[in-house]
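Sequence design from tokenized structure. All designs in this work follow the same two-part layout: the structure record, then the generated sequence. An example of the structure record is given first.
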């Protein structure tokens, strides 16, 4: 098994020298060739092993990763979200946005070769290629909105589990289920027969002026 891992590592090392194929990755298909070539010149390659943590949720990061060959798993809050493979871009939200906290934990599950790009370098290159910057900005906003929607859904689910119901309830439901007041004029008595009752509005106390007027009239 160790020999197999070393052999695979040697193959990965050969792949790391193949920068031309980096430009052909699907994640760069909409971008200018010159822009991708400029990124390619700034690449750092890393060979990672099963169990290595590429990034950890809520930690600060300023690197983005292109998974060139291998596999990883993504988890958020300890819950498994996805398994990712060749050609995916990871960590771009922290690089492209103002919030540098990682949104998930990514753990390597097989021998993996990743290309690493420093966030400051990415921003410098984007400034030189305005068309690529527009595409990246659009992709970032789309990813951020998708992530924020998931955050909202998770928060609502958490509140529902904790409180029973997180979204607004009707007033009648609040009185019935929270305050224990049943405004329905029909209720069942112990014998199973329906009983009618009228809900009388609370009597208002007479004001001092009303009392005096009553005395004058009498």
């Amino acid at each position: 098994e160790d020999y197999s891992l070393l052999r695979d590592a040697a193959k990965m090392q050969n792949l790391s020298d193949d920068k031309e194929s980096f430009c052909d990755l699907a994640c760069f298909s909409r971008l200018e060739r010159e822009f991708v070539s400029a990124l390619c010149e700034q690449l750092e390659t890393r060979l990672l092993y099963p169990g290595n943590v590429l990034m950890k949720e809520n930690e600060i990061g300023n690197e983005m990763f292109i998974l060139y060959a291998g596999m990883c798993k993504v988890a958020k809050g300890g819950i498994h979200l996805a398994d990712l493979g060749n050609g995916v871009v990871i960590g771009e939200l922290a690089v492209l946005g103002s919030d540098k906290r990682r949104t998930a934990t990514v753990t390597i599950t097989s021998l993996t070769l990743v290309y690493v790009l420093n966030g400051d370098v990415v921003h410098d290159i984007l400034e030189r290629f305005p068309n690529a910057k527009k595409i990246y900005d659009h992709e970032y906003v789309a990813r951020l909105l998708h992530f924020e929607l998931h955050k909202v859904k998770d928060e609502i689910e958490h509140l529902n589990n904790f409180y029973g119901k997180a979204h607004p309830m009707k007033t009648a439901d609040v009185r019935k289920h929270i305050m224990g007041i049943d405004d329905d004029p029909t209720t069942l008595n112990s014998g199973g027969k329906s009983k009618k009752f009228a809900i009388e509005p609370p009597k208002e106390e007479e004001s001092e002026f009303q009392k005096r007027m009553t005395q004058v009239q009498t």
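The domain at 2-159 is CATH 2.60.120.10 (Jelly Rolls). We note this feature because it recurs in several other targets discussed in the main text.
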